[in-house]
Every structure is written in structure tokens, then in C-alpha cells.
Amino acid sequence: MLVVRAIQADDLDALYVMATQVGSGMTTLKPDMKMMGDRLDIAVASFAETIAPEKRDYMFVMEDTDTGRLAGVCAIKGAVGLNEPFYNYRIGTLVHSSREIDVFTRMETLYLSNDLTGSTELCSLFLHPDYRTGNNGKLLSKSRFLFIAQFPHLFTEKLIAEMRGYQEENGRSPFYEGLGRHFFKMDFDHVDALTAVGKKSFIAELMPRQPLYVAYLPDDAQEVIGKVHTSTAPARRLLEQEGLYFEGYVDIFDAGPVLQARVSELRAMRDSVLAQVGAAAVPDAACATLPEPEPGPEPVLVSNTALHDFRMILSQTAPVNGAVALSAAEQDALRCADGDAVRTLSLNSRKYPHV
Amino acid sequence: MLVVRAIQADDLDALYVMATQVGSGMTTLKPDMKMMGDRLDIAVASFAETIAPEKRDYMFVMEDTDTGRLAGVCAIKGAVGLNEPFYNYRIGTLVHSSREIDVFTRMETLYLSNDLTGSTELCSLFLHPDYRTGNNGKLLSKSRFLFIAQFPHLFTEKLIAEMRGYQEENGRSPFYEGLGRHFFKMDFDHVDALTAVGKKSFIAELMPRQPLYVAYLPDDAQEVIGKVHTSTAPARRLLEQEGLYFEGYVDIFDAGPVLQARVSELRAMRDSVLAQVGAAAVPDAACATLPEPEPGPEPVLVSNTALHDFRMILSQTAPVNGAVALSAAEQDALRCADGDAVRTLSLNSRKYPHV
Amino acid sequence: MYVVRPVELADIDALEALAAVPMPGVHTLPKTREKILAMIEGSIASFAAQVDIASEESYLLVLENLTDHSIAGTAAIFAAAGSNGTYFSFRNDVIQQVSRDLNISHSVHALTLCSELTGYSQLSSFYVGEREQGSAEAALLSRARLMFAVLAPHRFSDRFFVPLAGVTDTNSGSPFWDALGRKFFQMDFLDAERVIGGARNRTLIVELMPHYPVYVPLLPGDAQAAMGQIHPSGELAFNLLTAEGFEADDYIDIFDGGPILQAHKNSLRTFTGALQRRATVALDARDRGREPPVRYAISSGTEHNFRAVIADCAALEAQVTVALPAEVLGTLNIADGDTVICVRL
Amino acid sequence: MYVVRPVELADIDALEALAAVPMPGVHTLPKTREKILAMIEGSIASFAAQVDIASEESYLLVLENLTDHSIAGTAAIFAAAGSNGTYFSFRNDVIQQVSRDLNISHSVHALTLCSELTGYSQLSSFYVGEREQGSAEAALLSRARLMFAVLAPHRFSDRFFVPLAGVTDTNSGSPFWDALGRKFFQMDFLDAERVIGGARNRTLIVELMPHYPVYVPLLPGDAQAAMGQIHPSGELAFNLLTAEGFEADDYIDIFDGGPILQAHKNSLRTFTGALQRRATVALDARDRGREPPVRYAISSGTEHNFRAVIADCAALEAQVTVALPAEVLGTLNIADGDTVICVRL
Fold first, then answer.
1. With CB atoms counted within 10 Å of each terminal CB, which end of chain D scores lower, N or C?
2. What is the pLDDT of residues B109-164, one digit of tens each?
3. Cβ contacts (< 8 Å) between D317 and chain C: which residues?
4. What is the DSSP track for A94-157?
5. What EC number is given for this enzyme (chains C, D) (predicted)?
6. Which residues does C216 contact at the CB level (< 8 Å), separation at least 6?
């Protein structure tokens, strides 16, 4: 069985093994024992609540309980941009209009901003290629929403996720070539690497400060603003299903979109429910099901409610009238027992049933 | 009974009478026969769908059917800023940080923007003092959400409402005195009057173009950014209950907040349901009610589904299993009959029942 | 012999003929007889006016060939640019970019819409006929405007500028306009110039032109290349003005990117080198042959009788008088003993 | 008699004593012996260097009283400001605001962080003792820097600037800083100057100072009043420099709002009025009594032997030589027939 759980101090070696298998696309999980160890320390302290909420970095690993192997990792950063400025371009609108000669021009503009400073960030998602089947990707990505729904008080109201921006097949970023290169005078990969290791003061030093009209950029750069890398499109869809939206913030280098949500408006906040482990108390089959009965079994995310040892699985057992009949193996994976509270959320979102 | 309905061409005289009773606070409903007639023409054409969606201005009146008297008015503008630039300040964040000397300064900034260009606007709400009792205010304000839920395709995804900004009891606007006056060199009332009559080119000519740090403003100006006029606080709460949020846009003169929502995220979109006029088909009292039975009768907004003759009332009859048993008088007010579809929405929002 | 003198009503036919010669750019003579007449009348009124502070006056000088009394050129000076509003231009800023961490250092140019030239005195409408191109008379005509300013400084600003027409392509399009103004005006270069009437002080500029600096590296190559480039027809003026002490590079035109030359009067040779001397009648034109003669622009020294000519005479630095042939005094409309302004050409 | 000459190692004690005199602002002498020594060595190396293009050279001149060989003042000039980075200042822009609809017209000042003074030559560290305040020797000391630039133009930029200390309140606070820099640096004026070491070219300025123009009307009254105001101790320097041709108003210091005077060399009296003459020994100091004598600053004419003194002599405009007492030639370390640079004081 696959369990997504809070990372533990002794996961370091297994994490390192997995990081060596990550390609170059993931800048936040480099196979560097020192960096990983530091980050793991913060994660452990986060679940133990021994550091301030805005400094926390909740890391989750997906473990294959049959083999003990780590299959994936993901994280939630308590707040971004409080140590180093967190830059984005915000897309705005300026209208240039003259009634005298009847001209009305609506222009898109890019503003260099630190508006997202302090937001909670979804990040560092990685699933080992061996496990890229079925619902595993969804399970891993969405585990974070169940965690947030269980502990909303730990997070700021604003949630964000940065998406990798569009690149051509040869790795060329049309947005970077059309804008950043003129100011940084170096290759995109170099810039990318600098920011990955936290060297960001050059952004303040070199980035143009004044608002830019998008129309000044070459066409191919204009076209990719807010567009994700082909390989990132599925991840974007998953997040959008959970209630994240593109609200006009993009990466300053590759113009990849930042998805955003209010925590209180997340599907997980609206639709997840607490249930008691055990058989349903009122087995009234006629009307005890959810308003719209599903045709087949609907997979359900189920988590325990413990912060320091948060664990989550995917179950085929839906809650019925506030109770969920988990199997012994499932209870074991969640480290819970009959009568304990668990949080459940259907894996897939449904459209409003009432319209 | 009070009915909120699409305005009709022959409402002009009654509307004028009501406008003469409006105080100075409402700039969009001046007792000017020419201006009102022009606006009414557009409203009638809007409901008749004879002009393009972005030019429409759906006006609704609240009629006391007992006397035929108009008790209030409200409107939805299809899109703002397409004839004249629509200006706001957007509040942003800039971080100034130097690792070298360990300084981290987070500053709020004001950007002059036309970002909300093209948004659908809720506006022109006025309820005659004689009718300011009970749920009348809610009925009038919220009627627009039911209209939008019934005809979402007529609107852009972004919905906004401008709120009157904070003023001291003597009418002084601390924000205007701290900012605008330096550039406009005239009294707030004068500026307000100019914008009301559509003279807005002076904004482009005189307003400072560059982003401003909020910290430059006097304290009393800083404090009122995004704060509503005392008399507007109840209206703000009503809109927030329906899913509008303050997202950092304020008026350029008085810094009153603009509330915003995605149409698809409105409570009315999520929670309103279609029902058939008539008695409930399956009167199974044991489990046919909504999941959480209400202690008392919950007032329900009910509208017909006709665009050109949209009508809405407040009823005490909740829909049961897709049917709503409206009284003859209610059916009459809505101009519908048994078997017709109506849209219903509980007057008051409820918190998520599942958490 | 040529004289530079204020325009007169009788010059209208000659000016109309000159205006018919195709010239690029917008800082040239008006094209219709009606507008030319207005310009002449404005100039006559300006010369006649009692001026306390530079305002809407515009002075138009003509170069007259005294042999046949033909008009060989025109040159104007406006007392205060944008006097009905604001004179807009792009300031060419240089932003130094230095990153210590990355050991990078370079500079980026940015164009900022600015109104700094408002109130400067503006030189304009410089034109000389084919025959006088490159001649000393062309230099006299250009400089005579500044000599008048030396004579009547209260009529002008302490700073002067001259916009010169920018480059256009074969279809009279402007690569600079296409990269910038077109995006906001949504029309062709010539249409825009027509709509705005060649003015640079209109409200619609504030309404339509970009409010934030334009980073030059983001402009297409041909637009960058056009920045500060003069139309070939402006080369004579450009050379005369830079020799005079005007500087390019700081400002360019908001429409076509043509250069705007500007200077404080203290940097202009006419101001720093102007000598006020008493004119005397030269008894014998040959008796000063001991030193090689120097070519001077000489203008009459009162503001209500302004005329300028070229004369060769001995270096004047150490003299208190300037000896001129009687004919020159006649052309200048002055008498023996009157004051003149002299500047080495 | 006084002489202005390059600083020498032997001057260190005298300079240390001068540096102990409390002076406001940051453009003064360093305070520690170690730093003073570095400055002296830097100056000696700069004078000795073969320079093709202005770079990190800094030249320090001293005013020596030849009676007792005491040091009465110092004055420095840096070849290129911000040469290790960017020299930041606030440019004082004027924005013309015109609304045709409302018939409103006024101007708004805005301060823009800019790096335009980078690469200008910077005058600095001007100080004279109590006794020489307001004397011709003070003027000589200030001007000698520019005379050296006349002599060795390749060592300097074509443009020069001088930051002068701004006003502080009774607690050594700066009202301008409190309204602006403090909001970003979150510290007191003196702490900030200490942290940054008086420099204006550090990366942390880009990181911390505002990137958008500061509209002056939004600043509190005392901060507005402090803009461009000099600390009382800077009045002498200010008067000397404006008489020289420097202009205030365009730039102010980013920390205390003090004025930054600047000029193109063509606008400076030392450059426009410098005369190169051959020095001769005056046989009889009284034989030129026919004309009233003129007071000149006279410097030796080679860049590796720079010295300057004051001397009275007949007007030199029409002369090719300047007759000086043998004692003056000795002080300038030159011989009969050598070239000198002369500027009216």
C-alpha cells in the first residue's frame, strides 16, 4: 500500500537516493546531503511545531509500505519571501484612451512585484517514474489539501503554487530570450541555477524596475506568458480542480504561471468531512447516501488527524453517515483504530450537483 | 408584496420621483430626466438583448405591488471601462532587503491601474428610507446574484462592486487630503462631481503615474485605505456573504474598497437551485429535507427564469426535493404557474455544514 | 550680398513657394497660405511686442539675396516651447546596472516621456535653398536667431533646443514610430502627425503615450537604430548646430525618434563669443591687410531693428570699434557709431 | 604667501589634526590615521600614474602657508565617481501637469533615484581653516582642482559634480532622511551613514532605496524644506562653486537631501577663462602700475609638477607672457619661459 506521511528524520538516506533519480527539472530537490539534511531538519521541526508557523516547511513522503521504499515527495512551505524577496511579474491592464481623436487602447503590463510575500506555497512535488501510474500522482499532490483542511490555522489565507514555464523542445525559453536576457546577459540555465541556490540579490540589481508594456516584447515571448511547460500541464489541472486559479502572477524568468487560492475556498475545505472509523451507525440505504449516488466506487482520500504523524491513504470506502469502514490494513497504514476520527475527501472533484 | 423586477420603459416617472429623494451620497442616480431616460433606454435594450452584452446595464426596481410605488433600485453593468478608462489603485507589496546589512523592509505600494476594465459591476443600489426594514435591503441587493446565477453566460467571469470610502463626520476624506489634493488642487466634492458626470480625462492628465509607497502618506490617509464609509458597512457585509472579497483594489480618490468575485465562485452559483412550482413530489419527511434541518422557516429568494421580465420575491417556502409550493399570490408576483421552473436561494448564507 | 531680417508681409509669395518644396518632419514651414500668413503676422507682432517674459512669441527670419531680392531661406525661433501646454519629448536615460554577486556591470538605456523642454526657447523651420547649402550664409541664417537672443535675452529662455526630423523608410513610415507610438495610437506615422498637427504639446499625448520608461534593448533593431538619427535633409542644420555648441543624445522626439539638440546659452558659441562693438565706416577697405581678415556675423544692435550680415574684418577681441564698409552699414540700417553684435563665423 | 600643492606623506600629522575638527556630512576627510594614509598614498600614486581614461584616481591637494609651513586646507577631486559601481543620487525632476478640461496647470517635483553622475569627476573634501575662510586662498584651493583638470583633461570627465552636506537638526538627525531613507533602512541617519561608510555606490542602495519617483508634495514640510539646503558649514564652498559656474537644483543627495552641484566643464569659469601663458621674471614689480592689477590664480603648466599660487598682474587677455616675481616662479617650481595656466580669481 502507498501511504503519504509526514517526513521523519531517518528518511534522509532514502530521500537522497530518490533525489539522485530526479532530472534537472526540479531545482528544489538537488542530491546534496547538506542541503537535504538542513531541509529535513526544518520539516521535522515543523511537524513537531517547535519553529514559528511562517518558518515551517512541511515535507511529505509517499512510502510503499510493501517495500519500505520512498516513491515520491511533496511539501508545503509555511510562508515564502520572508528571508529573501520573492519576485513575480504581475500582469496588469493600462488603458490609453483619447476621446478627442477616438482612440481606445488596452495594454497589458508587467509589474515587478513582491505581492505574494508571506503566502503559503505548495512545492517540491516529485513522483518516482516507477510509480507514475493510476491515481498515485493525484494521491501525492492532493494529500497536501487534506493536510491543510485538517490544520487550516497553520496557514495564511493565501495559497500559491509556482508552475514551470513554457520552453521549446530544445530548452529555449521565449520569454527569457525576449526580456530577461537583455538585462542579465547570461543563459537561462545559469539564471535558473542561481535562483535555485538562493542567490537572488542580482534580481534587485539587474531587473528592470519600471512597469513594462507586454506589447514591447517579441510575439513569441508574449504568447507564452502564463503558459506552463508541457510536462507540467497535468500538475496544473490537478491544482485547478482543487480550487487554484491563475490570477495574473507569473515567474520573472520564464513567465510560468503562479496558481493561487484562498485557503477557505479550497475544495478540500468545503467538501472534506470528518468521519469516525467503524461501520456506519445508521445503515438506512434509502436516503443515507450523499445526495447524488455515484455509479461506481469513488476513491476517497483518508487521513488521520495527527499533526506530528500525519498519514494519508487512498481508500475505496466512502464515509456513510459520518462513519467510514476502513479495513484493518488501512487502519494500520493510518495508525488509527475504531472510533478514531479521520478526514475524508473524494479524490475527484464533482461539478455543483444542484445547477 | 415587494417584487424586484427588470425595469420597464414606463418606470421613468416613478424613478425620477425616487431619485429626488436620494441624498448626495449616490452619484449614479441624479434626478436628471435626460440622464435617467438615457440610462433606462439602455436598461430596456439590455433585457431585450438588442445591444451587445458588454454595453448592457441591467436595472432592477423593487415595486410595492400593494401600491405600485417604487421602493428601490439596483443595477448590474455588463462591463466597465470600455468607453472611458476605469481607474483604481491596486495595493501591492515591494520588499526592500539587504542581506549585507540584514535589513528586510516590506512596503505597501499603490499602483494606478485599469486592471478591472471589462468587469461586470454591481452598482446603483438604493432603497427608499420608508422601506429600510426587515429583509428588504437583503432582498434588493441579493436579487442581482440570483439574476447572475440564472444567466451567467451574460457576464464576464469577474464581478466587482465599488464601495464608498471612509470620510470623517464633516465629510473630509483623509485619503484625498493626503494624496489627491496635491495633484488635483481642488476639493474632494468637486472631483467627485466631475467623475460622476463622466469627465475623467483629467485623471490621466493629473494623477501621479508612478507607483507610490503607502508609507509616504500621512498616517490618517494610510489608515483608511480599503475602509468603507460608515453608512456603507452593512452593504459591504451583504456582498461579502455572497462571496465577494476585497482583493486590494481601492478608489483613487477616497480609497474605498472594490469588492470582487469570480462569478463561478458566488454563493448563488453554488447554492441556488432550480425547482418546479408545485407541491413536493416525494413528501418523505424522514429524509427528504436538506442534510441539516433548519430550526425555523428560512426565507428563500425565488425568481422566475425569464430574462426580459425577470421577477423575484422573498418567500418563506423552501424547495423540497426539486419542488417549491408557492402561494397563488407568489406565483402571480413572479408571473409563473404550476410546473414552471423557478430559481431559489436561501436568503442567508450558511457556513459549510460538513466541517 | 545677403541679409537676414525679420519676415515681412510682402514675403508671403516667396514663402509659399518655399513651403511647396517637400521637406520631411514637422518642424518646417506650414503648408497653406493661410497658415503661412498667420505665421508671418505672428512674427511681426512678436518683434513689435514689448516682452517682459518669454511666452507665445515666435520670430521668423528670412535670408534675402540682395542681388535679386529673392528669399533664399527661413529660420524661426519660438520664445517658449509648449507655451500652450507642455512640450513632450523622450529623455534618453542611462541606467547603470551593477551586480556585485555576479560581477556584472553594464548600462541600459531607457526612454522616459518628459516635459523638461517646456519653456525652453525652440529653434525651428530652418530651411535654405539648394544654392546656399553649406554656405556661410546658411550659417549666418541659423546663427542670426541666437544673435537676436543675445540682443534681447529677456525675450528668450536661458536654454534652447532644436528638434530635427528623424529617419523614415521608403514608404515615409518611421521604424521608431512602428515600435512605439503605433502601439498606443493604433495608426500610421503620417496619420498620427496629421492628427496631432505636428504639435508636441497636446493633451492627447499624455492620454496615449506610455507613462513608464521604455527600455531600449526591448525595441526592435531598426527602431533602436533610428533613435537620434537625423533625416538626411537635416544634416546641414545638425552640423551647424553642433558646431554652435548644441548637444544631441539627451532627448529624442516622441514620434519619430529624431534627435533634439539642446544647450544652455552659456555653452553656445554665439553667446560666449558675441562681442558688442561700435560700428565705424571703413575708410579704405584694404588698409587692414596687415592681419588676415576674420569672417564675422554682424547684426544691428537694437531689438526693434534686427538685421544680420556677413563681413570680413580684423580680429575684434582687442578693438572697441568695428570698421565696416558703408554699404554694410546701410544693409544693417544703422549709422556710424551705432552698436553692433559681432560673432566669428 | 600660500601654495596649493599635491599632498605628501609628510603631511599626515597635519591632516590628522585637521580631520579631528568636527565637520558635518560625509564628503570630508577620513577620520583615522590609517585611512588618511591610504588617501595620501592613493593621491601620490594617482599624480604619478600614466592615465589614459579617468578611473579610480583620487587627487588630494593641500593649501600650505609658506610662512610657517602649516597646512591650512585640503581639497580633493576623484577622477570618476562610483568607479567601483554606480554613484547614486536623486534627480529632481519637474513634471508639468496640465488639464485642458479643468484649465489647471501646475508643476510637481519628483525625486528619481538615478545613476547619471556615475563617471563624472567629483570634487570632495574641501576644507579650510578658520583663518582662511572667505579668503582668496580658499578660492585658490577650491579652484586649483579644476586648474589641474584644465592641465590634464584626459585624467577627468567632461562633467564635474560636488555633493555638499545637507542640513541636520539639533540631534544630528536629518529631516529628509526621516521622511525617506529611514522608511527603507529602518535606522537613524547617522547609523545609516556609518553602515554605508559615507559611500553612494553600494549595492545595498539599489536593494533598499525606492525604485519609483518620490513625489515631493507628499513629503512632510520639513523634509521638503531640507531638499537642496546646505549645512551652514558648506556655505563657503557653495558660494565659491556657484561663482565658478556650478549649478544646483538638478540633483540632491539620497541620504540627507543636500545639494549636488554639477556642471559641464564648458560652463565653468576656470575652463572657459583659463589662459595659457609663458612666465617671465618681472624686472620691476611696479612698472605695470599703469593699469590696475588683476588678481590671478596661476598654476604651473605640467601635470607632474602641479602647484598653484595667487599673483596680481596686468590683464593677460592681450598678452602672450605673464611677468611674475622670481619668488612666485620659485614657489611654482618653474623657470623663466615655462608655461603657466592663469585664471582670474
1. N
2. 999 999 999 999 999 898 888 899 999 999 999 999 999 999 999 999 999 999 99
3. 317-318
4. EEEEETTTTEEEEEEEEEEE-TTTT-EEEEEEEE-GGG-STTHHHHHHHHHHHHHHH-GGGS-S
5. 2.3.1.109
6. C108, C109, C110, C111, C224, C227
Domains of chain D with bracketed CATH: 2-89+114-269 (3.40.630.30), 274-344 (2.40.40.20)
User: Which among B314, B94, B299 is positioned nearest to B212, based on CA atoms?
Assistant: B94
Could you give all domains of chain B from N- to C-terminal order, each with its CATH number?
2-87+114-265 (3.40.630.30), 272-346 (2.40.40.20)
- Residue linked to cell 503615450: C209
Using CA coordinates, name the residue in chain B closest to C211: B209
Alpha carbons D333 and B258: distance in angstroms, whole number: 78
Question: Across the interface, do C204 and A212 touch by the CB < 8 Å criterion?
Answer: no
Q: How confident is the model at residue A280 (pLDDT cuts 50, 70, 90)?
A: low
Distance, CA of D308 to CA of D300 (rounded, Å):
6
Q: What is the pLDDT of residues D93-112, one digit of tens each?
A: 888 787 777 777 788 999 99
What distance, in Å, lies between the first and last C-alpha atoms of chain B?
38
Distance CA D271, CA D3 (A): 21
Residues A298, A178: contact at Cβ < 8 Å? Answer: no
Chain B contacts of A84, Cβ < 8 Å?
97, 99
- Residue of A12, A31, A9 whose CA lies nearest to A196: A31
Indicate the DSSP class of residue B280: -
Task: Please provide the average confidence, as pLDDT, over all residues in chain A.
Answer: 89
Neighbours of chain B (3+ CB pairs under 8 A): A, C, D
Cβ D264 vs Cβ D242: under 8 Å: no
Amino acid present at A61 = V
pLDDT number for residue B298:
84
Q: pTM here?
A: 0.88
- Cβ atoms of B116 and B80 within 8 Å: the answer is yes
What's the whole-number mean pLDDT along residues B292-316?
A: 84
Query: Is the CB of B208 less than 8 angstroms away from the CB of D211?
Result: no
A216 C-beta neighbours (distance < 10 Å), count: 23
Query: Out of B128, B182, B190, B229, which one is annotated catalytic?
Result: B229
Kindly list the residues from chain C whose CB atom is less than 8 angstroms away from the CB atom of residue B84: none
For residue B250, the distance in angstroms to the closest alpha carbon of chain A comes to: 15
Looking at residue A282, its pLDDT comes to 53
Kindly state the cell numbers that stand for C100.
556585485
**Coil vs helix vs strand at B21:** coil
Which of B115, B201, B288 is the closest to A92 by Cβ? Answer: B115
The answer to whether residue A354 is catalytic is no
What pLDDT is attached to residue B292?
Answer: 46
pLDDT tens-digit profile of C18-49?
888 766 554 567 878 999 999 999 999 999 99
Rg, chain D, Cα only? 22
Q: Is B295 left (phi over 0), alpha (psi -120 to 50) or beta?
A: alpha
Nearest of B90, B126, B348 to residue B237 by alpha carbon: B348
Q: What is the mean pLDDT of chain D?
A: 89
Per-residue pLDDT of A198-234, as tens digits, reads 777 788 788 888 899 999 999 999 999 999 999 899 9
Higher-pLDDT residue of C23 and D287 is C23
For chain C, list residues with pLDDT below 70: 22-28, 84, 284-291
The shortest C-alpha distance from D118 to chain B (Å) reads: 22
- Nearest alpha carbon to residue D149 among D249, D269, D26: D269
HEC letters along D109-143: EEEEEECCCCCCEEEEEEEECHHHCCCHHHHHHHH
> Could you give the angle at which helices B12-19 and B33-47 cross, rounded to 10 degrees?
130
Q: Which helix (H) or strand (E) holds D262?
A: strand D259-264
